[in-house]
Design a protein that fits this description.
mainly alpha, 3-stranded antiparallel beta sheet, 5 strands
Amino acid sequence: MTRSKGRAGDPSPAESAATEGTMPDSLVEKGLAAAVKGTAPGEDRLDWLSHQWNARRGDIDITPWQVWGRLTRIQEIFLASISRTLTEHHMNFKEFQTLGALVLSGPPYEANPNTIARFNLLTSGGLTNLLTRMERDGLITRHPDPSDGRGVIVRITDKGLEDFNAAIVEENAIEHELLGCLNAEERLILGTLLRKLLRGIDRAPINGTRQTTG
């Protein structure tokens, strides 16, 4: 029996695209139409800079920079806004990521440094300094790893868990606020396109397994 379109529980075209990693032409057209219509009217900083480059070096195709330049600027805005909130909770973004890695491990909220490093992309030396500071501030404790005589296990403290749970509520609210100019479908469209880009260029392991493209 064929399912009727639009029935409750059926995925929307955008949700199907997000799951399958594809982007139907109708959704692309809808996204372009929204941009042309002026959902966010006027030019942004990248448009202005692009005009300057085109005027001086018209021989160079700067369309790639129009993508990653915007991604970089968006990251700067997100990190600045989130960092201000995390400062109120007496932690920085790397410490927040580290506590998040421990929370995601599940009770008793502990992990080895290699697992944590996949979340905050720090070198071993940088991670050691970070953990030392967090232990001093009472956010984590470190214990010998029973399965590795030379290793350690990092565990979140009651204080660390309490601080993280308070911070993540406000951090999540900021993310939603910053994405407020996009509706739910536009977020799915943008997320799908960014996933396609990331999978095409990122060779870092996902959860310890190297991803493949294609």
